[in-house]
Amino acid sequence: MALRPSAAANGTDKQGSTAISHGSQEKQKQLLASDTGHFSMIKALHLADLITELNGFCGFMSIISSMRYCLGPPDAYAPIWAALAFMPFGLFFDFMDGKVARWRKKSSLMGQELDSLADLISFGVSPAACAFALGLRSAIDTLLLSFFVLCGLTRLARFNVTVSALPKDATGKSKYFEGTPIPTSLAIVAGMAWCVSQGTVNGGEHGVLGGTLGQGILEFHPIVGIFVGWGCAMVSKSIHIPKP
């Protein structure tokens, strides 16, 4: 989750850049509130915002690829590899939008909101959809995957509310993330990629992601506990991750 360089988000103390940001934001407010003119919302977007949209695009394409895998034969792994690959590309665009915004010295009122929404798709919904495609499909599995996604949603909402109140360093950036950032779910994605390479996925010769416990409606895969733990870490207030 990359911080976008707005005065509120980064707490900049340089009066010149703050004035530029304020003027840019006022112009964007007028474009968004305008009742006339074609594509006024598109005109209000900055280059960094368009890069953020590419993050969301990667997340959506990952979800579609997971769905393709569910529809195809279980030994056709190309769609699931595509699903796994799109998520790191989303992280690339998540880093680039902040760099481009700082390079152009333009802040965006929509930037932080777009960033959070795109992160939810790419690093919350996409990993959960991929896990479902790979075999975590029981009723309890899906319930716990939903818990993971909702934790990501809650963590991003809290970030947007509290980012201006977090302690800042000399450059005006927040000193730490409260709770693990949602892009860290790519560690789970790496684990799923390893499972695909080993054939321990739905339809694989070695079973489904470590096997199941329980029967009937109570059946679940113990490995889904990783998603539960990661979700709890995202919404934790006691975990402080220093920013690089």
From TrEMBL:
Its annotated pathway?
Lipid metabolism; Phospholipid metabolism; phosphatidylethanolamine biosynthesis; phosphatidylethanolamine from CDP-diacylglycerol: step 1/2
| Enzyme's top EC category | transferase
Q: Does the keyword S-adenosyl-L-methionine apply?
A: no
State the signal peptide span: none
**What Gene3D superfamilies does the record tag this protein with?**
1.20.120.1760
Query: What subcellular compartments does it reside in?
Result: Endoplasmic reticulum membrane
A GO biological process held by the record = phosphatidylserine biosynthetic process
Q: InterPro entries attached here?
A: CDP-alcohol_PTase-I, CDP-diaglyc--ser_O-PTrfase, CDP-diaglyc--ser_O-PTrfase_fun, CDP-OH_P_trans, CDP-OH_PTrfase_TM_dom, CDP_ALCOHOL_P_TRANSF_CS
Catalytic reaction equation(s): a CDP-1,2-diacyl-sn-glycerol + L-serine = a 1,2-diacyl-sn-glycero-3-phospho-L-serine + CMP + H(+)
Membrane topology reported for the UniProt record: Multi-pass membrane protein
Q: Which GO terms describe its molecular function?
A: CDP-diacylglycerol-serine O-phosphatidyltransferase activity
Q: Does the keyword NADP apply?
A: no
Q: Where is the composition biased (Polar residues)?
A: 12-23
| Alphabetical keyword list | Endoplasmic reticulum, Lipid biosynthesis, Lipid metabolism, Membrane, Phospholipid biosynthesis, Phospholipid metabolism, Transferase, Transmembrane, Transmembrane helix
The protein's matches in Pfam families, at most eight in alphabetical order, are given as: CDP-OH_P_transf
EC number, as in UniProt: 2.7.8.8
Q: Where is this region: Disordered?
A: 1-25
GO cellular component: a single term? endoplasmic reticulum membrane
Q: Which PANTHER family match?
A: CDP-DIACYLGLYCEROL--GLYCEROL-3-PHOSPHATE 3-PHOSPHATIDYLTRANSFERASE-RELATED, CDP-DIACYLGLYCEROL--SERINE O-PHOSPHATIDYLTRANSFERASE
- Family from the record: Belongs to the CDP-alcohol phosphatidyltransferase class-I family.
Name it: CDP-diacylglycerol--serine O-phosphatidyltransferase
Tell me which species this is from: Heterodermia speciosa
**Per UniProt, what is the name of the gene that codes for the protein in this document?**
CHO1
